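debug: dumping io for the single-chain case to check the tokenizer round-trip. Nothing else runs in this session.
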Amino acid sequence: MSQLPNKQRHLITVTNPRSPVSEAFRALRTNIDFSSVDEKIQIIMVTSSGPEEGKSTVTANLAAAYAQADKHVLLIDGDLRKPTSHKTFSLSNRFGLSSLLSQQANLEDTIQESGVPNLSIMTSGPIPPNPAEMMASNRMSAILQELRHRFDIILIDTPPLLAVTDAQIVASKSDGVIMVVSYGKVKRDIAVKAKSGLDRVGARILGVVLNNVKRKASEGYYYYYYGN
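debug: decoded output
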């Protein structure tokens, strides 16, 4: 195996695919695939109740896990306020989702290779003054519809639910939602409040990823758990 570039340093599913954490991401991928019998789950939004719960790291690793299963995957950085994907993958953020929504770039300009086989990235693009309005636009819906024809799986990283309305808007355009909760950091009532926001827009919650659970010293700090 060739040496992995530094850009993939946050992707444990790529750098250490045999680790328990990587196995947990594969289990999450499998559970999502089997969570629906009648409806295809293709666009998955990943969010959290508040900041710094690890949602962007979870999104990137889940995207890599799908790519490793020979799926053609697109990760969209839908956090138009505090984007991170261009840093995680060491990519240019000159053009991205905001550029596409504002018609300053076309689809080909905004899709970049990640360095992981089968995984493409659409960064956020320049931070706009009106993120919620852009997400709610008919153009956003049309773009997602076009992307359905180009990719097997589309993962969208969004801002925290309780900070702004962006995530609720994107949830209404997605097939399902994964909510990331940091173990020991988020109180139950806050998580319940965040979930109620998803319920109000009719979002389909696929499950919860419990982040930062330390099982054993030998397994490291991060561990991700999927549950209904």
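debug: round-trip ok. Residues 32 and 206 are 7 Å apart (CA to CA).
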